[in-house]
Amino acid sequence: MDHSILEEDLYRFEDLLDDGERAILHRVRTFLQKEVAPQANEWWGKAQFPEHMIARYAELGIAGLSYEDCTTTPASNLLNGFIAMEMARVDPSMATFYGVHAGLAMGSIARCGSPEQRQRWLPAMGRMERIGAFALTEPQGGSDVAAGLHTTARRDGDTWILNGAKRWIGNATFADLIVVWAREEDSNHVLGFVVDGASPGFSATRIENKIALRTVENADITLTDCRVPETDRLQRANGFRDTADVLRHTRSGVAWEAVGVMLAAYRIALDYTREREQFGGPIARFQLVQDLLVRMLGNAMASLGMVVRLAQLEDAGSFHDEHSALAKAYCTTRMRETVGWGRELLAGNGIVLDYSIGRFVADAEALYSYEGTREINTLITGRAVTGHAAFV
Fold first, then answer.
1. Which residues contact 218 (CB under 8 A, 6 or more apart)?
2. pTM score over 0.90
3. Do the Cβ atoms of 284 and 290 come closer than 8 Å?
4. Which of 130, 138, 177, 328 is the least crowded, having the fewest Cβ atoms under 10 Å away?
């Protein structure tokens, strides 16, 4: 198979990239097909994160493409979107690992750090010599974390003392740098801190028994009188509005990942129906089978068109909360529907990991929930279109 050509892209959206961007995307595509696809089911089945692959991802040189501090010629959001889609098309777990590091952690430092902080951390993170994590969600605070953030920060001279707990923190068990969001005790403002993973008072415990994104090492974090120097407080993070700015950008990445999952489910189902024979021939020749395949492709193409336009708005500087919120809500809903049809077309084989579709069905549930539930993103969009906030 020529991995430089994506047959599933029926409307050739990839042609919107320039030649240099397409070359980067095709290099990523070839790497994923050769190095990740053959092992993805094994990693997922064993719930084992392949730390040895970090160095291989680093060789791609893509983690710093979005940030001027890592490269003199930052890539377009369109290219970064296609890369996120491509990763999720092969393995949503590894796409999530990459999104946490390059999107949430690096994005927090790029948008909320001082010039000195960006220069201190981002180049090494761009080379993936130092891996990042992002700690916002708490055991009792998910959708309401803006108002219900319980992790505290107290100033003590030139240091801050952090206390609290975080949950569902990807990469945290092995990350070098963890961006922790906490509420200042005196002002009640939400502040961001870059915590060294080896800091006294910081501990991360892996969450076990997951049924989605099993390859990702999500963790429960405990902060007990964890001291962080003032120099490691993100200097441009002065309230939850700054946190939300990071999430606005990374939420678009989840929408792109949802498209990747849909394309994967469609390709698995299409190949299977061409090969599976019943009633004297391949089941791809039956009308009901073709109906589901076309519905799957339609969902993927409609969603791909949406995220392409989303990236164009981002590149043009005309990007608002409702743009990423609607895309995340719509694309992940269509994703859930699409992977279900794919599993249906594989019938009993759809629940066997050997055929891969079950992995995408399970992983879709995590993408559907993280970076804002459908309901929360609906309310963000609803507030923008009606002028009325309906969160409570």
1. 168, 169, 170, 172, 206, 207, 210
2. yes
3. yes
4. 130
